[in-house]
């Protein structure tokens, strides 16, 4: 009888302890489960916030890139307009050619050949119709990168240092005319510069705008050395832009300008005044 009583007490104590331990284990398991769930929820929330932040930053980057691109376009147009304006002031009695270049943002697609880093394919999207063989200027950061030629509805870029990249330039403040080109022995040069005035090392080379490829005044490079030939000078030039970039500005200066002669305009104004007509709206465009 005594043994039965002791076994009963033992079983009761064991059951009590087992229930106590089971409750504590269950509480610990539930606590761990809650921690895992909270961790997963926080992780999901952080991932969602990171994704939202990424897309928000991507949208901000896109807006800033578009803003920068528009700013660059305005900057280039203003530079071209300033040069055009100064030229007009210098030749006010000449016919006034009031035209602005058209600038298009283009993207490099690939190299034409992997072992030639001076020829590139460019993305070509435009609503205008151009003839096969049309030549455009290529600039980046208001520096000459090269030229682009439309061939079979594909736009191929020839960068400075390619044998097909030739355009008209001026050297120094005295604006000695020359042709920027590639020479297999000398590299990037300005050829056929008149003997006088003598050019000097360190002078700046800029586009002349006389070839209908670029507008005037775009930076090309700096004269590194000079060689005299029979009847002309050759300048070896360090290009201002000598690297391949992902994006370029395509320059189209072949836009039909509005041409008006200052002299004929003044004559027409005088005739209209003599006829008693209002000439207040008749003026040279600016």
UniProtKB/TrEMBL annotation:
<feature type="region of interest" description="Disordered">
    <location>
        <begin position="266"/>
        <end position="286"/>
    </location>
</feature>
<protein>
    <submittedName>
        <fullName>Rod shape-determining protein MreC</fullName>
    </submittedName>
</protein>
<dbReference type="InterPro" id="IPR055342">
    <property type="entry name" value="MreC_beta-barrel_core"/>
</dbReference>
<feature type="domain" description="Rod shape-determining protein MreC beta-barrel core">
    <location>
        <begin position="162"/>
        <end position="242"/>
    </location>
</feature>
<dbReference type="InterPro" id="IPR042175">
    <property type="entry name" value="Cell/Rod_MreC_2"/>
</dbReference>
<dbReference type="Pfam" id="PF04085">
    <property type="entry name" value="MreC"/>
</dbReference>
